[in-house]
Amino acid sequence: MRHLLGAEGLDPAQALAILDTAANLKRTLLGREVRKLPTLRGRTVITMFYENSTRTRVSFEIAGKWMSADVVNVSAGGSSVGKGESLRDTALTLAAAGADCVIVRHPASGAAQRLAGWLEAAGTSVVNAGDGTHEHPTQALLDAATLRERLGDDLTGRRIAIVGDVLHSRVARSNVHLLTALGAEVTLVAPPTLLPQGVRNWPVAVSHDLDAELPGQDAVMLLRVQAERMHGGFFPSAREYSIAYGLSERREALLQGHAVVLHPGPMLRGMEIASAVADSPRAAITDQVRNGVHVRMAVLYHLLAHEEETP
């Protein structure tokens, strides 16, 4: 594997190999006082974020450091981008400086794909850490890892509802591609204004009634309402959204006993999810963050190390 640009087209066997590697890495590091493996010693990993991030950026940095890679952070505000340098020139500069892997988050959909094309000759790998409203593949992988921990390794036939702002969510798109490829049955639950055009052609069910869908689900994934990407009225008010699509304590009671609650973060408590639900035992939100480190370690391993080795 040279790059990880999206969950769409990711071979299920390849996805499962990454997930299995992540699980092995998690077991390997369990109970260690010093969480450090020599696997990527001598490799240089650069994170290049043009959008704000906490979870993704920090977990990629920790993942690289736990694998003994040299990790360098580049932000748009603190680089020559602020002087007008193009994405292409920045990428070529980083490759020339010795980057083995560039992890990029960018507001433009398709930016990671373009970056991979520019860096192909240099042999530098590219990981998409979120591009516009297009994809966020490592988030989908860590969500799948969390679901496998809670529901069992085989997700075939598991019913998963993705709820909220699907229109603007790269997380939703990547999860639809990955979870359906792994055999899950996905239902998108959202107001019509927050569903993308052509969604009826996706390999999913679509509903506008959250209460009707909850009892049959094995997992519910709440999405962040992305107000920064909205221009115009997509719903009447935060209160109206919460009444129709927020996961309240009353709605949590409709779920099966084993059902899991996920959220990619950051959460809008009281609007998307009640605090009591977010902090309940069925919520796997902190597990997602924890698994994100191991999944991103596995991605770096498959990109930069010899896959025939056992991590």
TrEMBL record:
Its catalytic activity? Answer: carbamoyl phosphate + L-aspartate = N-carbamoyl-L-aspartate + phosphate + H(+)
One Pfam family from the UniProt entry?
A: OTCace
Q: Which residues bind L-aspartate?
A: 83, 170, 224
Q: Where on this chain does carbamoyl phosphate bind?
A: 55-56, 105, 136, 139, 265-266
Question: Residue limits of the Aspartate/ornithine carbamoyltransferase carbamoyl-P binding domain?
Answer: 2-149
Tell me where in this chain the Aspartate/ornithine carbamoyltransferase Asp/Orn-binding domain is found: 157-303
| Entry-linked HAMAP family | Asp_carb_tr (MF_00001)
What is the stated purpose of this protein? Catalyzes the condensation of carbamoyl phosphate and aspartate to form carbamoyl aspartate and inorganic phosphate, the committed step in the de novo pyrimidine nucleotide biosynthesis pathway.
* SUBUNIT field: Heterododecamer (2C3:3R2) of six catalytic PyrB chains organized as two trimers (C3), and six regulatory PyrI chains organized as three dimers (R2).
What this protein is called in its record is Aspartate carbamoyltransferase
Its organism's taxonomic lineage begins at: Bacteria, Bacillati, Actinomycetota, Actinomycetes, Pseudonocardiales
Q: Which gene encodes it?
A: pyrB
